[in-house]
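Pasting as-is:
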Amino acid sequence: MTSDIDKREIERILIIRLSAIGDVIRVLPSLGLLRKRFHKAKISWVVEEAASNILGGMREIDEIIVFPKNRISRKLKNPLTFFCAVSRFLKFSKELRRRSFDVALDYHGLFKSGVISFFSGAPVRLGFAKGFSKELNHLFNNRKIKLPVPKLSRITRNLLLTKELTGVDDVGDVHIGTTAEDRRVADIIEAEYLSGERPRIIVHPGTSPRTPYKRWGADRYAALSDILVSRLKAEVIITFGPGEEDTAGEVKDAMKHGATILDRPMRLRELAELYRRSDVYVGGDTGPMHIASFVGTPVVAIFGPTDPIENEPYVKTPFVMIRRPAACSPCRKRSCTRGDCFEGITPEEVADEVIRLLKGARKAEAYGA
C-alpha cells in the first residue's frame, strides 16, 4: 500500500459489502485481519437489511450501518418520487461523511457500492480495478487492485483487497458470532423440536426464489435423508429461508422416515447457532451453506451451475464439494430448468460423503458408521 496511509494512524474504517448473505459472510476473514491489524480503530460496515442480521453478533464490528436500498430503489423507479430518493441517498451519504472515515474498502465492486464509497468522503477508497469490478465501479475508488487471475475464491479475492491495507492476506480465523438471545432460541428449539439423537444432520434443500436453478431437487434430498436415517439413525433437520417453505415441505413429505422441520424460517444468527450445534450440513450454493461453514460445521455442498472456485466454503472448516462437469457449467442462467449439471449426483454418493466427514470428525464410531 502506498505510504500516504502509513503516515498517520487509521482511526475509522468503512467496510462496504451490501449483499448477498453468502457474499457478506465471505468478508469475515478480512474483517478479522482488519481488527487484528488496527485493533484500536472503529470499524463500521454498510450492509443492506436482508443480510444485516448475520453481522449483529460480531464483536469485531463497532457499527452496522443499514443501507435502505429497497426504499430508495422504489422511489427511484417512480418519476414522482425520484427526487425524494435522491434526497434520501444524500442524507445517508451526509451521515457517512459525518463519521470522518480514514479508509473505505469496497468489497462489493458494483455501481451502488462505488457510489457509497465515493460519498463516504474517505480520503482513501480501496476497490478492484477495471476488469475485476462491474458497472463502472472502478471510477469511484482511488486505490484499485488487479487480481493475479480472473477467477479466485471470493474469500481470497476479498483478502487480497484487504492486504493493500494490512500488508498480509492470511485467512483470518473468524467465525460468525451469536448473541445470548440467539442461543436461547436454539435452546428452545432443541427442547421442543429435536429428539437429541446424533448425528444431527442439517439438510437445506432450498435456494432463494430467484435462483431455483441451483436446487438439486426435493426428491433427491428426501432419498438422501432416508439413507442417513436408516444407516446412521441420524436426526435430520430440514431448514429453510423465507420463500423456501414449499421446497422444505416437499422433502419431508417425500421421505419414508421422519425428519424435523420447523414451523417458521429462522433468523440468520439463529440458523448459525443451530448449525453450530449440528454435526454436518448438506445443501447447495446458498447463504446458509456459508453460514454452516463459518460456524465450523462440516459441509457437503452440492454444486450444479455454481462455480466451484469462486464459491468454495471456508477453508478452515472441513467440506466436500460434489459436482459433475457439464459443458454449460458454471453458469448463472436463472431461467434454466434442464438441470444437466446435477445429473449423476446420487443420494448414495452424498450420503457416503456425509459419513466420511463424520469419520473425519472422529464421530463415526459413536454413530455406528
